[in-house]
Amino acid sequence: MFWLLLVELCFTMPAYAFFIKFFKKRNIVQYVRHEGPQLHNYKEGTPTAGGVIFIIMFLLFYSISLFFGPSKFYLELILTVILFGGIGFLDDYLSYKNRNSEGLDAKQKLLLQIGASLMLYFLALNRGHIPPNNIELYNLTINLSWFYPIFFVLLLTGFSNATNLTDGLDGLAGGTALITAAGAQIVLWLSGIYDYSMMFLAGALLGFLWFNIKPASIFMGDTGALALGGVFGMLALLSGQLIPFILLSTVFLMELLSVVIQVSSYKITGKRLFKMSPIHHHFELLGWTETTVVVRFWLINSVGVVFAIVSVII
Q: Mean per-residue pLDDT for 276-304?
């Protein structure tokens, strides 16, 4: 199966080289949000929606891998990527059409994510791939009863939005997702789940990251970010390895929590705890260079991956 990963890399790298030029020609480019740090203004005009490419590569090679071995969660993971990636694609398309950074508003995006999550919940439940009301935390079984569907939706939308919030610096979301995917594949194997989805996702992300590190030649857009978070959250639910997947996604959840804390603090006390959220902007405004923030966040997520692997082993 590893030879197929090498084939994927051989296709992904030239594909990005071609589509970067294609997106520039078609003016499918990034529009910088005015509320972000002014030092990011130079990124405007960089090709975006690069997530479309690694999604296609992932879907293609993950599907081809079925000829060499079955995948228990294939249907759920494929639909997760299509549904959440589709929401992101709609957001990116509206931004492209309007020639600004405004795509779907927050309420529209959340409603679509909830709808997609409910569809995936009923699919996974009918296929017997998730329990009706229980979650497993190592040897502890917790009965959530009627709250389980709500928990399912909250976790899936939370993971998806966490990844989207992380996508703000060159290489940050792509590199972090690559580390998470590689760690997730090891966790699956150690758990006795022989599914190669994360290996092929990591391969697709490696090709993307080659062109996304500073100075980025292309961004993933909401298409890629929402799909990545969705598939990580879905796999956490399907595999029953909730705590390991939380550790695997340390940076993503750190970014999400920083926004929740910032908004809550401002509404309750009228004061902001961070200079700006998500938290990667806070460190930028403290004087850290973009590359310093990205590499240190990669290291933090790598530590989370190590803890996740150790937690499965013991």
A: 96
